[in-house]
């Protein structure tokens, strides 16, 4: 039986966001047990022209939210885009998980062969099908920001391993 659009997007997004919440717990424990300041983690980047850790969390949550808004065509989800603490990021992750868990798979799957139009600051982005949108835009962007968030915490000394990233904590 072929996988559905919902199964290749919402389910792994939920899993990764749940993993990320545990990763942030480890980041908080690292701050509590060392002299590392929380802001060192939340403002970390790999290079000066890269967006920081807080932005990575915002964007991966936004990518998950885009599944609901642009594919399932739910009402737009408005959120403040300014989490600065690990606790605020945890809250954002929890709200994003709740949105995905509440998502009905049928509207997602019904969009497989239909055009998706996303409103972006520079206008509109169109994908000829929901499948194309999910596989060539949402999933790669989600995992890019998920990977960057993990890498930034590793760079700052948070004791994480591949099992944390994959969810075998």
TrEMBL record:
Pfam families, sorted: DUF1993
InterPro entries: DinB/YfiT-like, DUF1993
PANTHER family: BLL2446 PROTEIN (PTHR36922), DUF1993 DOMAIN-CONTAINING PROTEIN (PTHR36922:SF1)
Designated name of the protein: DUF1993 domain protein
């Amino acid at each position: 039986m072929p996988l559905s659009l919902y199964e290749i997007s919402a389910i792994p997004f939920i899993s990764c966001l749940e993993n990320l919440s545990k990763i942030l717990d480890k980041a908080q424990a690292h701050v509590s047990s060392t002299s590392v300041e929380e802001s060192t983690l939340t403002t970390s980047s790999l290079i000066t022209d890269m967006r920081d850790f807080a932005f990575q969390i915002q964007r991966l949550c936004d990518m998950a939210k885009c599944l609901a808004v642009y594919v399932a065509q739910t009402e737009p989800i408005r959120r403040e885009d300014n989490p600065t603490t690990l606790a605020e990021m945890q809250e954002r992750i929890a709200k994003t998980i709740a949105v995905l868990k509440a998502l009905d798979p049928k509207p997602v799957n019904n969009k497989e062969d239909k055009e998706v139009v996303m409103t972006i600051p520079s206008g509109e982005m169109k994908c000829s099908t929901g499948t194309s949108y999910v596989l060539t835009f949402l999933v790669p962007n989600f995992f890019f920001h998920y990977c960057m968030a993990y890498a930034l915490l590793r760079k700052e000394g948070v004791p994480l391993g591949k099992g944390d990233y994959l969810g075998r904590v």
